[in-house]
Amino acid sequence: MPSLKDLRNRIASVKATQKITKAMQMVAAAKLRRAQEAAESARPYAERMGRVLANIAGSMAGAEGAPALMTGTGRDETHLLVVFTAERGLAGAFNASITRLARDDARRLVAQGKTVKIFLVGKKGYDLMRREFSSLIVERMDFRAVKQISFAEAQSVAAKVLDRFNAGDFDVATIYYSRFRSVIQQIPTAQRLIPVDLPAGNGSQQSNGAVYEYEPSEEEILADLLPRNMAVQIFRALLENAASEQGARMSAMDSATRNAGEMIEGLTLSYNRQRQAQITKELIEIISGAEAL
Pfam families of this UniProt entry (predicted)? Predict the structure, then answer.
């Protein structure tokens, strides 16, 4: 049984931890609002970009001049998995849920005889996947020095993916991130990046009865829009991840704070009982000594 001094020290230690988790919860709550606004603002732009591409690509489907980013290489042998995770932990199951989805897909593809390559963006993703898939990791990036994610970071990731695709390094690319729904719910998501995953039902140049003619040609427009769309989708994934990370951290720190409070109550109860028992024992010894005299 721990002594009274040990219990006092442990109570003081848990109280110090509780202060830290409470402070982290408040910081995450402050960052969450800005991150959520940024993620929600990026969604309409990314979705509209997809609809525009689908509209333009309608007449290009099956054409010989269709860009490779839209049609792919025609093969399905080599897959690049681009996994976005956070740079820091203490965010509950946020990082683990994303890497779990990527690991499951990697195992499935390997079982099918496909070649899998992994591109990790974020320190925690590398920490979680290097043990099982170290031989499949072809590139990794982290943004620990970046305070706030901007479009420049998305462009740098898109440029590396595009360079590998142009070099014939893979046939299909998929990004993995966590889509923000609420503070207590973040949804691990896999989205195909190459060939571009166009919205269903929009592969036509007609919208609400209107017919569009494009100048310059569709090929030239797609040659510019497809790489830009890749950067836009990656930027959206980064913003969704940022909001999901803060939401997950806020929930995790709230749970940790409440658990610390419950632990303090239990330790205080044990301390009071042990102290009361010790006082009672001393009184009994005093009374027994007095009676003996």
Answer: ATP-synt
Tell me which residue of 147, 167, 152 sits closest to 242, measured CA to CA. 147
Return the SS3 of 190.
strand
This prediction has a pTM of: 0.84
Q: What six digits make up the tokens of 81?
A: 């998995």
Structure tokens at 23: 């402070």
Choose the weakest-confidence range: 22-36, 100-114, 119-133, 191-205: 191-205
240 three-class SS = helix
Cα–Cα distance, 16 to 13 (Å, whole number): 5
Place of tokens 């940024």: 38
Q: What is the pLDDT of residues 216-269, one digit of tens each?
A: 766 777 778 888 888 999 999 999 999 999 999 999 999 999 999 999 999 999
Whole-angstrom Cα distance, residue 217 to residue 67?
13
153-182 b/e with 16+ CB inside 10 Å = b?
bbbebbeebbebbeeeebbbbbbbbbbbee
Report pLDDT digits (tens) over 149-183.
Answer: 889 999 999 999 999 999 999 999 999 999 999 88
Q: Which ranges in the chain belong to alpha helices (H)?
A: 4-57, 68-71, 94-111, 123-133, 151-166, 218-292
Q: Which residues contact 168 (CB under 8 A, 6 or more apart)?
A: 73
Task: Name the amino acid, one letter, at 204.
Answer: S
Give the rounded percent of residues in the chain with a pLDDT score beyond 70.
Answer: 90
Helix (H) or strand (E) holding 118: strand 115-121
